[in-house]
């Protein structure tokens, strides 16, 4: 039986002691301090489990964040990072990992952890077949690393959880970009620190484009807009607090901003970058045409009036504002959090873009030669909850599965916990296909190539992947990041 008191500690847990000592890289402190201890007792006490886990419950804070008048701040679009140098095959970048004061609440600043002083970090736009090399310099007081989420990367550039670099040090990652165009993102993945580092701001878009998309004439240029949605909890001084529910939703780092659009079609690249949240977004009931998933374009466009995304998932969708008169305002709202962004139609504009009936074929998968069962769950028997994969907490010295390069496997992912403990599952290196939801119909978000999938309490999802490209060790884990930090992670090794 789930212990309510222990479940409620998940949001602000100090990771340390015997239960979590295995999580920390060698040479780091024996604990990771939570974001704010001062308010944890009062904020966590009395909250229902559903509210803590998925932010649907009442807020009972000891502190109140600064007030914000909705739709008075423009939604920023993160600038595209320019290469420091280019060769015939590669774009070279340099990017600092650094603390910075950022304006989340108008008129005041919040100390954040950033890439290049920006929250969200700068967008990196790359092309299939052209490599990217990024040298990061760690300006934090703690170890860091960087994971390209959804990237097919060599093991030494994956951002493997234990492969960190120290304060003041630099690390170069090389991304071959030998995969189809997709909306990816980069974020910290340093074992024991990743939940705190992501929560405080270490995340940014990596948009991979390819020549196959060009003749489709989808909206592009200034009409191709990345949107990062996530949440947080703040104190009266606009400081981060780790308590749940994380009641403030941020859209590209701002609270309930507006975005001015022309009366024409736009492509939006939507990312749920929250540590632990399920988004259900609607646009005044207006049709949103889903065109892409985690791993790139879908075979055909799918009209929807609600977009559902769990932490780590992405979707590309098109909205045709040409159906509305200049002056029209449409509000993108979450089913639980309410309004998160307002679109203001402010001008007319020519539009030669389109959404074709056929986007990108999805080839048939090779037959699976291996079937595995993987169960995500918590152990609540000790003083501290521990996350488990198949009954075991993560151990970097243990390889859970050896997989022969080039083979195709079917993984049945089980959520071994009772409601309301949902999980998301993410595996590094490969994209997969969702093929079953315990006999129930697949969800719209399951379509296409995926690297992250939502698994509700007590249920299962089957995914199929071909493990090609690179050798070495990679991890799979729950992408509700606090769950991962607490041990809900395993390790595969790709072998010849």
Structure description:
By secondary structure, this protein is mainly beta. The chain contains five helices and 34 strands. It has helices at residues 4-7, 40-44, 49-54, 194-199, 481-485, and strands at residues 15-16, 31-32, 85-86, 90-102, 110-115, 124-127, 131-138, 147-149, 170-175, 182-187, 203-209, 224-234, 240-241, 248-251, 254-255, 258-263, 265-272, 278-283, 288-293, 296-304, 307-310, 314-320, 329-334, 338-348, 370-379, 386-389, 401-404, 408-415, 423-427, 432-436, 452-455, 460-466, 472-478, 489-495. Strands 12, 13, 14, 15, 17, 19, 20 and 22 form an eight-stranded mixed beta sheet that branches. Strands 3, 4, 5, 7 and 9 form a five-stranded mixed beta sheet that branches. Strand 19 (288-293) and strand 20 form a beta hairpin. The termini are far apart. The model is unreliable at 1-60 (pLDDT under 50).
Shape label: globular
User: Biggest β-sheet: count, sense, barrel?
Assistant: 8 strands, mixed
Structural class: mainly beta
List the total number of helices. 5
The strand count comes to 34
Query: Which regions contain 5 or more consecutive residues with pLDDT less than 50?
Result: 1-60
**What's the rounded overall pLDDT mean?**
89
> In which range does the helix fraction lie?
under 10%
What is the radius of gyration?
A: 21 Å
Q: In percent terms, what proportion of residues is strand?
A: 35-45%
- Calculate the terminal CA-CA distance, rounded to whole Å: 43 Å
InterPro entries: Cu-oxidase-like_N (IPR011707), Cu-oxidase_C (IPR011706), Cu-oxidase_fam (IPR045087), Cu_oxidase_Cu_BS (IPR002355), Cupredoxin (IPR008972), TAT_signal (IPR006311)
Enzyme class: oxidoreductase
Subunit structure: Monomer.
Keywords: Metal-binding, Oxidoreductase
């Amino acid at each position: 039986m789930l212990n309510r008191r222990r479940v409620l500690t998940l949001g602000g847990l100090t990771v340390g002691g015997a239960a979590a000592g295995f999580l920390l890289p060698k040479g780091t402190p024996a604990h990771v301090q939570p974001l704010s201890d001062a308010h944890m007792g009062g904020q966590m006490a009395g909250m229902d489990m559903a509210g803590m886990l998925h932010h649907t419950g009442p807020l009972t804070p000891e502190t109140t964040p600064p007030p914000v008048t909705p739709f008075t701040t423009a939604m920023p679009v993160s600038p595209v990072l320019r290469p420091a140098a280019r060769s015939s095959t590669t774009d070279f970048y340099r990017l600092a990992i650094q603390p910075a004061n950022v304006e989340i609440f108008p008129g005041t600043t919040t100390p954040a952890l950033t890439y290049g002083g920006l929250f969200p970090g700068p967008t990196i736009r790359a092309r299939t077949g052209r490599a990217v090399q990024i040298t990061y310099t760690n300006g934090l007081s703690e170890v860091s690393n960087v994971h390209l989420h959804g990237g097919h990367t060599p093991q030494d550039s994956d951002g493997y959880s234990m492969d960190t670099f120290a304060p003041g040090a630099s690390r170069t990652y090389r991304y071959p970009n030998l995969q189809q165009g997709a909306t990816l993102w980069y974020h910290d993945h340093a074992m024991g620190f990743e939940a705190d580092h992501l929560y405080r701001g270490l995340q940014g878009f990596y948009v991979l484009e390819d020549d196959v998309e060009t003749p489709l004439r989808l909206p592009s240029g200034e009409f191709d807009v990345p949107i990062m949605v996530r949440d947080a909890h703040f104190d009266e001084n606009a400081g981060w607090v780790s308590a749940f529910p994380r009641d403030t939703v941020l859209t590209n780092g701002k609270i309930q901003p507006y975005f001015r659009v022309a009366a024409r079609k736009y492509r939006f690249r939507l990312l749920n970058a929250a540590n632990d949240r399920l988004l259900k977004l609607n646009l005044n009931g207006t049709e949103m045409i889903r065109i892409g998933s985690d791993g790139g374009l879908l075979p055909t466009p799918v009209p929807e009036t609600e977009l559902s995304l769990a932490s780590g998932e992405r979707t590309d969708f098109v909205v045709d504002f040409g159906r509305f008169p200049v002056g029209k305002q449409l509000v993108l709202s979450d089913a639980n959090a309410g309004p998160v962004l307002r679109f203001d139609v402010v001008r007319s504009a020519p539009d030669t873009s389109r959404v074709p009936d056929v986007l990108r074929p999805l080839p048939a998968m090779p037959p699976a030669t291996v079937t595995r069962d993987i169960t995500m769950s918590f152990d609540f028997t000790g003083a501290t909850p521990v996350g488990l994969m198949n009954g075991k907490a993560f151990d970097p010295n243990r390889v859970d599965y050896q997989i022969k390069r080039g083979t195709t496997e079917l993984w049945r992912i089980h959520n071994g916990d009772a409601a309301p403990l949902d999980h998301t599952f993410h595996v590094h290196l490969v994209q997969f296909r969702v093929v079953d939801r315990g006999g129930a119909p697949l969800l719209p978000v399951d379509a296409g190539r995926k690297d992250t999938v939502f698994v509700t309490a007590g249920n299962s999802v089957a995914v199929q992947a071909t493990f090609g490209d690179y050798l070495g060790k990679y991890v799979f884990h729950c992408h509700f990041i606090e769950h991962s930090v607490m041990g809900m992670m395993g390790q595969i090794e790709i072998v010849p």
